[in-house]
Amino acid sequence: MEVTGVETAGDRVTGVRTSEGPVASPILVNAAGGWSGDVSRLAGLTVPNVATRHEILATEPLKPFLDPMVVRTSDGLYFSQTVHGGLVGGLTVAHPPGTAAGVPSSPRFLTSMARALVTLLPRLAPIGVLRAWSGFYDDTPDGLPVVGEDPRLRGFVHANGFGGHGFMLAPAATRRVAATVLGEPSDLPAEQFGPGRFLGAATPSTTERLQLG
Question: What is the CATH classification number for the domain harbouring 171?
C-alpha cells in the first residue's frame, strides 16, 4: 500500500490517502526511511532530509582470514567477513540525491568496489560476487536524527533522518516516538533532535561526515 497524500484540517493531521483508499487518523508517524522527506512534503512540510543511495555487495565464501571490519575513511570503503566466509562491504559512489531513480545496483559501483578491494588485497582478485543491492540513507544537515512532533502540523511525528544508523538507533528511538504519540514528555532535547531545529535562521553544524558505503 502506497501513501499518496496526507489529509489535514488547519494545523492538524486527520489521515492519509493511500493507493487502497483513505485512512483516518489524528496521528501520523513518518518513519519512511529514505522516503521520509517525500512523505513530509506530501504534508506540505519543507524538510532538509536528503535521500542518498548507497550500495553493497557480497562475495562467495572464503576460508576465514579476517576478524575486524576494515574501514578506509578516504573513500568510505568498508568490508568484513561473515560467519559463512563471504565478504560483505560497500564503497561510497556518488549518485543523484532523492528517490526518483530507485535503488538498482550500478556497474560503476561493482567496478569501483572490485578495484578498491583488489588494490588493497590482491589475493581477492579471483573471488566472485554473489549479489549486490542498494538502498537509501535518510540524511540530515547535522547528521542527527529527527524525532518528535512537527511544530507546524500537530499529530505529524517524525522518526527519520537516521542516515546509516537506523537499525542501531531503532530500539531507543521507537520508545521516544511512542511516548510522543501518547502525549508523554520526551527526554530528547528538542533543540538537538526535534524537527523545529531546522526552522530557525541558524543552520545546524555538521557533526558527522563519514558515511560507510
Answer: 3.50.50.60
Domain span at residue 194 reads 3-49+141-198
* Domain identity same for 12 and 44: yes
CB neighbour list of residue 121: distance below 8 Å, 6 or more residues apart? none
How far is the C-alpha of 18 from the C-alpha of 89, rounded, in Å?
A: 36
Q: How far apart are CA 170 and CA 105, in angstroms?
A: 26
Strand 156-160 vs strand 28-30: parallel, antiparallel, or unpaired? parallel
Buried residues in 98-109 as b, exposed as e (16+ CB within 10 A)? ebeeeeeeeeeb
* 42-80: pLDDT as tens digits: 999 999 999 999 999 999 999 999 999 999 988 889 999
Please say whether the beta carbons of 110 and 117 come within 8 A: no
The answer to whether residue 207 is domain-embedded is: no
Output the pTM of the full model. Answer: 0.87
Residues 134 and 66 in one domain: yes
79 and 132 housed in the same domain: yes
- Burial bucket for residue 183 (CB in 10 Å: 0-12, 13-18, 19+): exposed
Question: Could you tell me which residues come within 8 angstroms of residue 202 by beta carbon, excluding any fewer than 6 positions away?
Answer: none
